[in-house]
Amino acid sequence: MFDLSDKIVLVTGGAGLLGRMHSEAIVANGGKVIVGDIDIEFAEKTCKEINELYSPLEKAFPAYLNVLDKTSIQSVLDEYPDINVLINNAAIDPKVTDTTGPSGSFESLSIEEWDLSVDVMMKGTFLCSQVFCPHFKNNGGGIVINISSDLGVIAPDQRIYEGSKKPITYSAAKHGIIGMTKYLATYYADSNIRVNSLSPGGVYVNQPEGFVERLTNLIPVGRMAERDEYKGSIVFLCSDASKYMTGHNLIVDGGRTVW
pTM for this structure? Predict the structure, then answer.
């Protein structure tokens, strides 16, 4: 039921923190993964490490991918026409600050800075889906997984950032991705294309102790996630185990959005 041996998966932003984990999960369960990233050297390094980890089978392949360039997206499809799963993972998660810039406060955020962050997440998800969904339809079906966030379900609790602010762009875009998921799920429901989203919670990557403590107090299970704890969710959403699920937002956040 969870076997992915018939799945060829494109992970956008595949060389990033969670993109790498999604890619590992695919290969570990028998699938083939295309690690798409705008940093091709990082993608090549990621694939080399994944293939070494799961040798002797080579099942991870790098691809240059700019999710804001439809020609770039199409070139990946042209090179790997057997792709039958798309994971829209590419994102910009700006750091909190009170200064101007892409991660600036609400009052100082410019339209250019808004566009930079929102485009990668929302326009990138839109363009990749626009290229791949018709392809899936013509090939008899496929799967789309959009990566949202717990901040696509709730607003950031600005108290945990100790004087700084989490910018509006991330939460606004992640909320939008859940809406896009529902739209695409119903739009392609009669084309054997399932579209779901995954909303992970905060991942522990050596953040400051004070921040970790404040965030942990908001999470019922009492801790942040380890970076590999979303692998099972990815396998589930890619596999036949979820074949009757579409239009759903799977929240895996230690219970944070329950409180």
Answer: 0.95
How far is the C-alpha of 16 from the C-alpha of 206, rounded, in Å? Answer: 16
The b-or-e profile of 139-162 (16+ CB within 10 A means b, else e) is eeebbbbbbbbbbbbbebeeebbe
The closest of 193, 200, 210 to 177, measured between CA atoms, is 200
Q: Does domain 8-258 have CATH number 3.65.10.10?
A: no
| Spatial CB neighbours of 72, under 8 Å, sequence gap ≥ 6 | 64, 65, 66
Six-digit token pair at 102? 């892409």
Residue in this structure with the two tokens 């002797």, named with its chain if needed = 56
Question: pLDDT tens digit string along 155-212?
Answer: 999 999 987 888 899 999 999 999 999 999 999 999 999 999 999 999 999 999 999 9
Residues with Cβ within 8 Å of residue 111, at least 6 apart in sequence: none
Collapsed DSSP state (helix, strand, coil) of residue 28:
helix
The neighbour count for residue 196, using CB atoms within 10 Å, is 23
What residues have CB less than 8 Å from 24, skipping those under 6 apart? 50, 53, 228, 231
